[in-house]
């Protein structure tokens, strides 16, 4: 692979890096599909997410010796893939079930997706966040008109408060990663990937690489892969960071594992235990279909830096875990993957990252 410069401190590099909001505006004009409302899985509900670009990465294709495509979910209006599933769940809660208030317990991408959805649907949104939620994220949530309530020192405490608020107000509790409606929404990205690959003359990819937190994104990916008829031919690579690898630990132990603490800096992956349903699905499909790997925090941050240099887009370390599989093949995440066919990486998003935060992580890991 070509030599790399991962320093972000230089002016030329800084000038080339776009904020996520700027990136959304830029990619909207790249192709007609990039800003068009998606039609997948949106029957009888308002579609709140957009169809995102699938682009070939020249840099990553060179590194991996095969075509690598990026599904740019960071270009969703709320900043991440979460809008697909969370948006669908919110729309159904309002338009099907008559909810007049949406309640979330996520101080990250899921909370932002809920806040955006509530603004679009014209209903009140309350987001409960733990004390550790950065002020920048609280302001982002409030900018969509959400009521932001700080409760507890960790997510479980914020979630308990959110559950109580939903129960006492009759509001719809929007879970960050659980739920059939949410998983159906996430699966729509695979429909788009299949259509776009076909239009470019590509067949089924050899693998789809995604990151895993609680398991909602993985559940959607697997649902879409099955619907496409790819389940026996396409490996799904499930990437986590060490210190947040609850699915990886569960698969290795062959039982549901709860981590004693989340020590990774990739807080968006910070579910102490994966969704029981998603874990059961992974076990049923087997390790040849769902391949679980964990990389270091440094691997994830390094991938974010390379991605910023190569593609002029900022993503958070949770997304960097997926990118690490293709930026650092020596990790071994792609070992045993079918030799023919392209690789597709789900660039899940980066709404909780900015240049200052990425610079700080670069210094922390001395990259």
- H/E series: HHEHEHEHEHEHEHEHEHHEHHEH
**Radius of gyration computed on alpha carbons:** 19 Å
For the largest sheet, list the strands in their spatial order.
1-2-10-7-8-9
Structural class designation = alpha/beta
Residue windows where pLDDT falls under 50 for at least 5 positions: 1-42
Distance between the termini: 18 Å
Helix content: 40-55%
Largest sheet: 6 strands, mixed
- By oligomeric state, this entry counts as single chain
Principal-axis shape equals: globular
Mean pLDDT: 88
Count of individual helical segments: 14
Secondary structure tally: strands: 10
Describe the model.
With 367 residues, this protein is α/β, with parallel strands linked by helices. 43% of the residues lie in helices and 13% in strands. It has 14 helices and 10 strands. The strands form 2 sheets. It has a 6-stranded mixed beta sheet, sandwiched between helices. Helix 4 crosses helix 8, helix 5 packs parallel to helix 6 and helix 12 packs across helix 13. The protein is globular and about 55 Å long. It starts with 10 loop residues before the first helix and ends with a helix. 54% of the residues are buried. The N terminus is likely disordered.
């Amino acid at each position: 692979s070509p030599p790399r410069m991962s320093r972000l401190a230089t002016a030329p590099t800084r000038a080339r890096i776009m904020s996520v909001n700027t990136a959304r505006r830029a990619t909207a004009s790249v192709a007609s599909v990039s800003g068009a409302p998606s039609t997948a899985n949106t029957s009888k509900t308002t579609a709140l997410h957009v169809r995102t670009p699938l682009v070939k990465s020249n840099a990553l294709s060179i590194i991996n010796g095969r075509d690598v495509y990026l599904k740019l979910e960071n270009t969703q209006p709320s900043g991440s893939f979460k809008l697909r599933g969370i948006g669908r769940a919110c729309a159904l809660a309002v338009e099907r079930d008559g909810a007049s208030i949406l309640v979330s317990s996520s101080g990250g991408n899921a909370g932002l997706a809920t806040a955006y959805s509530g603004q679009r649907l014209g209903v009140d949104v309350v987001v409960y966040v733990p004390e550790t939620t950065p002020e920048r994220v609280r302001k982002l949530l409030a900018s969509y008109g959400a009521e932001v309530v700080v409760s507890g020192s960790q997510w479980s405490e914020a979630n308990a408060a959110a559950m109580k608020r939903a129960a006492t107000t009759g509001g719809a509790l929007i879970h960050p990663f659980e739920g059939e409606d949410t998983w159906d929404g996430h699966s729509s990205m695979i429909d788009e990937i299949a259509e776009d690959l076909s239009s470019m003359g590509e067949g089924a990819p050899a693998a789809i690489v995604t990151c895993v937190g609680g398991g909602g994104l993985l559940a959607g990916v697997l649902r879409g892969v099955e619907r496409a008829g790819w389940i026996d031919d396409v490996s799904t690579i499930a990437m986590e960071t060490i210190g947040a690898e609850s699915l990886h630990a569960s698969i290795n132990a062959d039982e549901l594992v709860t981590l004693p603490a989340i020590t990774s800096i990739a807080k968006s992956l910070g579910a102490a235990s994966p969704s029981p349903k998603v874990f059961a699905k992974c076990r049923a499909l087997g390790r040849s279909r769902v391949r679980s790997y964990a990389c270091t925090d440094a691997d994830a941050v390094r991938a974010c830096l390379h991605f910023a240099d190569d593609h002029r887009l900022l993503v958070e370390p949770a997304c960097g875990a997926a990118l690490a599989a293709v930026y650092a093949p020596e990790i071994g995440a792609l070992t045993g993957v079918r030799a023919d066919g392209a690789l597709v990486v789900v660039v899940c998003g980066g709404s909780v990252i900015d240049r200052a935060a990425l610079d700080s992580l670069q210094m922390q890991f001395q990259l």
